[in-house]
Amino acid sequence: MTMTINSPREAIGLVLAELGSEVQDLVVITADVGRATRAYTFGRKFPERYFNVGIAEQHMISFAAGLASAGAIPVVCAFSTFIMRAWEQIRNTIGRMSSNVKIVGTHAGFSDYADGSSHQSLEDIALMRVIHNMSVVVPADVKDILRSLPVIVKDVKGPLYFRVGRDYSPSITDDYDYEYRLGKAYIVEEGDDIAIIAAGPVLLEALEAARDLKRLGIKAAVVNLMNVKPIDERTLEKVARSCGRIITIEEHSVLGGIGAAVAEVLTQKYPVPMKFIGVTGYGRSAKNVRELLDFYGLNSQSIIKASLELIKL
After folding, report:
1. 219-261 pLDDT, tens per residue?
2. What is the dihedral of CA 125, 139, 105, 278, to 10 degrees?
3. Over the Cα atoms of the chain, what is R_g?
4. Ordered structural domains, the chain, with CATH
5. Strand, helix or coil for residue 38
6. Neighbour count for residue 186 (Cβ, 10 Å)
7. If phi over 0 gives left and psi between -120 and 50 gives alpha, with beta otherwise, what is residue 220?
8. Of 4, 26, 77, 113, which has fewest CB within 10 angstroms of its CB?
9. d(CA 292, CA 295)
């Protein structure tokens, strides 16, 4: 799929609109945020398969589960923060029933920088990955969305949470050649002194830190953990054994996020010293995403500092 797209939400809308011709059972549902999430791009092309339920996220989820039980392939699109209002329905009508519903949470992390903490979803990975049967996918950039979303809609059966931002989308993985597979982690930089594991747009910070560390004589491996669940235990154990030290960075709370997911694996497979870089509270308003990433220390400088501390151990 070749498109010129500037933001994650634009990618979501255009990919779904393209898939609509190929997947006749695909339906898209939104909770009065079709324009903000770009779900309306699908709706303009396939109005008979596009549903706006109003500001009613709980109804949106239950409606999607009902459509799935009738054989449709529902994709729900809403702000990630407000999808969490329907956590009970997600658990009971989608997770518990293994419903084939794909939940696209947009405006995740700090991407809705101007609206402040009420709109900045920093807990959603933890809430969604704890639901049995729920897969969790966090693409790094537009290219990752183009790789993964068509596969997820056409080939992946069962509940899945797809977490993307709003418009902040530096090109990170354009030059990497890998095909998407659910449950796979991707080593995008080789190294054997320390491993930096990232999910989402902060993968860019991990790569920049690895390049700076290389100038200091430190070889850092970088892993794109876009599949948070199911998690690639084999790759995580491999980098733990080869590097002996792990740093995780995420645009999410350090409680229950990717750092916790990695630690859950390695404490059983191959324990190594670890440091988690993430958020320890709520967000705040800012002029742009970069300001928030720097304020909360989600940047390459924090990774370098943590790396040097771990290497001294």
Report:
1. 999 999 999 999 999 999 999 999 999 999 999 999 999 999 9
2. 40
3. 19
4. 8-163 (3.40.50.970), 186-312 (3.40.50.920)
5. coil
6. 21
7. beta
8. 4
9. 5
